[in-house]
User: Fold DNA-binding NarL/FixJ family response regulator from Saccharothrix violaceirubra.
Amino acid sequence: MSVIRVVLADDQVLVRAGFRLLLDTEDGFEVVGEAGDGGQAVARAVELRPDVVVMDIRMPGVDGLEATRRIAAEAPDVKVLVLTTFDVDEYVFEALRGGASGFLLKDTEPVELLHALRVVAAGDALLAPRVTRRLIEEFAARPEHRRPEPGALAVLTVREREILALVAGGLSNEEIAAHLVISPATSRTHVSRVMTKLGARDRAQLVVLAYESGLVNPRRTR
Assistant:
């Protein structure tokens, strides 16, 4: 993969400095901009068109959730990796609904952040470490987060619904292929077709749609 261009959005200067130091010493990454609040993050995303914006949630003025929604609308080619802490976990599902392509706990290990950036930049799969997957399942199961649309998945075939459910379970294309005994290429084709039919920008949005439509019952996925 070519160099991954990153914008760092966090209101704490030391946090941004730490992320920049990590990325500057790692091959394959380039920090092309920084932002101290959500409004600046949107402006940097629109102006610089980075591959990924690393987005804090709690920032003054425009917060990370609203900034993520604006980036998804104004610069849909830019991926957003949201960082969250245990006291704001309720925002994780809302961030995904708003257009985030992945998320991490803010105290994650450096190697996990680097992996997350590569995954999100590639648009390959929703980053769902074990602990944060449980958080999504818990909050997605709450009534206020469910917006069932019985006919939302009518455009999908039976096989495509099966594919969608597996994506929502966190399986990669290769894992889906092994589960269904099909080739990885066929798995990728199915996933791409489901994304197109549902108007999803990436796999994270497919997970949201699977939960909201009622196709997946989060309490049964643990």
